Amino acid sequence: MNTSEVAKLLGVSASTIQRWVKQLELPMERNERGHYHFNNEDIELLKNIQTQIQHGTLLQEIAPAQEKKARKGTVKTIENSAELERLYSIVSELEAKVNSKADSVASYQLLQHRREIEDLQSQVIELSKQVESLHSQLYEIKKTTMPDKPLVLDQGKVNRKKKNIVSSLFGFLG
Asked: In this predicted model, what pLDDT tens digit does every residue of 97-123 receive, in sequence order?
């Protein structure tokens, strides 16, 4: 029986059974997954512990169980080596498929990146052409608007408004 089945039989929780086994250091058999496996002898021992607790004995006062002889679990061996070979070939095929899939995914990603890089390169070329065109247009604009001779003011003098004395004194305020 497993832990939950024994717990139902005794009317306690599975964690109570696990606590009794751990605190009393009971040598219980475990399966390949590490779960407790109880036989009839183990169940009788747990019933005895439950009776002692119901009569007021503290768990710490219950004497640990007599050391039981170690039990050994049995492992089924594959009697047919052909079955083992078949499993090995299936695993090998699966590994080959996984590797093939990984290679195809990597190849696809590389192609995608290459297309993206080519698109970016064509955009850079197009932008370079536009910059050259703008430079040449700017040069033409500067060339046509710049006179050959510098601008000269009438007789070298600039006509300025005359300010009265008051506004020139208090010009910093306004």
From this structure: 999 999 999 999 999 999 999 999 999
